């Protein structure tokens, strides 16, 4: 079994899609190992997105992820990292396949509702940042 970190970004909370999105992960068969509603500051955003802080798309992303409450979770299951990324869909909601979270619910490249860890190394790093006691 594997653990992955998922963020339901502020657009998901604002749009009232938290239940819809969590239901998809649960219905797929992933278990919720941790779940928290919280608002983060820019410093926390920088820690999470350490590999993107120098990118040109980062400043507006930083503003976006600190713009309101989000929901962060640890999901657990067989190949959870890949399974979650499949459910999330491609980064740009306009290009993401129908049936995926972004493909069904997002029209944006930035406000794309969810984040999922992209490797076992980043999952461990991100879980350590968001849930240090887990
Ligand atoms: P995530 O890591 O959030 O699951 P991802 O792996 O699909 O998404 P990354 O390339 O890691 O995408 O980018 C991280 C986040 O930065 C994206 O989810 C999106 O919100 C934002 N982002 C990425 N590329 C762009 C872009 N070209 N313009 C605007 N925002 C972007």
Fold and architecture overview:
The model has no long low-confidence stretch (mean pLDDT 98). The chain is globular and about 35 Å long. A 4-stranded antiparallel β-sheet has the order 2-3-1-4. The longest helix is centred in the first third of the chain and has 11 residues, at 18-28. The chain has helices at residues 10-14, 18-28, 42-48, 58-65, 80-88, 101-105, 120-130; strands at 2-8, 31-38, 70-77, 114-116. It contains 7 helices and 4 strands, in the order βααβααβααβα. The protein has a single domain (2-130), classed as 2-Layer Sandwich (Alpha-Beta Plaits), CATH 3.30.70.141. The chain is of the alpha+beta class. It starts with a strand and ends with a helix. The structure holds adenosine-5'-triphosphate. Adenosine-5'-triphosphate is lined by residues 52, 57, 61, 91, 109-110, 112, 115-116, 118. It is found in: Cytoplasm. Major role in the synthesis of nucleoside triphosphates other than ATP. The ATP gamma phosphate is transferred to the NDP beta phosphate via a ping-pong mechanism, using a phosphorylated active-site intermediate. Its cofactor is Mg(2+).
């Amino acid at each position: 079994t594997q653990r992955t970190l998922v963020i339901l970004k502020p657009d998901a909370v604002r749009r009232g899609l938290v239940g819809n999105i969590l239901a998809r992960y649960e219905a797929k068969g992933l278990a919720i190992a941790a779940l928290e509603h919280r608002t983060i500051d820019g410093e926390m955003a920088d820690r999470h997105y350490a590999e993107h802080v120098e990118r040109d798309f980062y400043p507006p992303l930083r503003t976006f992820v600190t713009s309101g409450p989000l929901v962060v979770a640890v999901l657990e299951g067989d190949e959870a990292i890949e399974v979650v990324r499949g459910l999330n869909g491609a980064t740009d909601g306009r290009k993401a396949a129908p049936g995926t979270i972004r493909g069904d619910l997002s029209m944006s490249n930035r406000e794309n509702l969810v984040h999922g860890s992209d490797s076992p190394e980043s999952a461990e790093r991100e879980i350590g940042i968001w849930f240090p006691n887990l």
